[in-house]
Task: inverse folding
């Protein structure tokens, strides 16, 4: 890794709104901006209570709303984000020289999760979600495999989401139609991981559920055996008393 790969992360502002007391926060509006010499070179993003509102695509110089409906009731000029990124780039050049081009330390936990957006039904479309958390700097490679074969169709991802502790998280989605026996793998690579790549597996299996009729039969058998045990116990008690007499 080049010694110029130094990260400059700027959390520009955090607003607290609708607060009833000085120490109680009901909602948080977060603006996260960073620039780095790694890829991606930077990010400009707004969150509300941890959910993304929008981010600015720095390559296309365009505001991307997390949900299209947001763009119908609000607007944001991408030029403002590009100006902020320019300021951070200038500051990064100064910080690199002051630190003698010391590179940032990469840190990552093996904290990877896979889950579905809705209950699984084999043979029906579902979206798999892979979540990687607790890593720094915000440079990570995530990919999907199905039965050990790379998958690119139906794959989407998110920007990097900052956490209060300075780490980042990222989501990777896969639209698929699982069949019985399929094995999906979320492969994650980061300089801070103890093993590269680190793989998380998801198996296309529907949890077995006992039918209502089976439950009724089991309950009926249990009740019958219980009654039989009580009757047998009473008979043995009377026989024991008779023998004693």
Result:
């Amino acid at each position: 890794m080049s010694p110029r790969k130094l990260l400059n992360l700027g959390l520009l502002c955090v607003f607290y709104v609708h607060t009833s007391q000085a120490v109680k926060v009901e909602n948080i509006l977060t603006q996260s901006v960073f620039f780095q010499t790694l890829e991606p070179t930077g990010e400009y993003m707004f969150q509300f209570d941890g959910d993304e509102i929008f981010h600015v695509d720095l390559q296309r110089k365009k505001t991307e709303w997390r949900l299209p409906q947001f763009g119908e009731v609000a607007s944001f000029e991408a030029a403002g984000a590009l100006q902020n990124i320019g300021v951070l780039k200038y500051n990064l050049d100064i910080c690199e020289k002051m630190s003698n081009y010391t590179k940032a330390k990469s840190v990552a936990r093996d904290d990877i999760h896979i889950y579905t957006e809705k209950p699984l039904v084999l043979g029906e479309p579902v979206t798999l979600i892979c979540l990687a958390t607790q890593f720094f700097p915000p440079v990570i490679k995530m990919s999907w495999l199905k039965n050990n074969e790379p998958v690119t169709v139906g794959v989407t991802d998110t920007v990097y989401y900052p956490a209060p502790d300075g780490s980042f998280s990222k989501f990777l989605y896969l639209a698929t139609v699982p069949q019985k026996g399929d094995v999906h793998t979320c492969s994650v690579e980061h300089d801070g991981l103890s093993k590269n790549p680190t793989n998380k597996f998801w198996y296309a299996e529907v949890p077995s559920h006992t039918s209502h009729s089976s439950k009724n039969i089991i309950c009926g058998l249990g009740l019958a055996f219980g009654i039989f045990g009580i009757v047998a116990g009473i008979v043995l008690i009377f026989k024991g008393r008779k023998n004693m007499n």
